[in-house]
Amino acid sequence: xxxxxxxxxxxxxxxxxxxxxxxxxxxxxxxxxxxxxxxxxxxxxxxxxxxxxxxxxxxxxxxxxxxxxxxxxxxxxxxxxxxxxxxxxxxxxxxxxxxxxxxxxxxxxxxxxxxxxxxxxxxxx
Length: 125
Prior knowledge:
Layout: E1 2-3, E2 6-7, H1 15-26, H2 30-45, H3 47-54, H4 64-112
Antiparallel strand pairs: 1-2
Helix pairs in contact: 1-2, 2-3, 2-4
């Protein structure tokens, strides 16, 4: 994945890693949040890469916006296959609904047509 013009490889998303990401996402308070997210990024990419990503050697001198943005990019990247699968499923459901809508329109038109009796004359109902 690309983060701030540099390419990094994400490890597979294990249960342990997913739980750590959820925990880092749930932290409240600026300093604690940045610390948790920076720590998570360090686990993923290593200290040298995180120094570049966050533009700082420590939590206290890093760019907090870059930490938050990088963390959100990682979340989005891990979530992408799931979102794509959901979108495909929704597209299939929409196609099925379009077919049903066309059938319903045809039935509505047929119901509004005048009824003919056996001799070919319109009924006076």
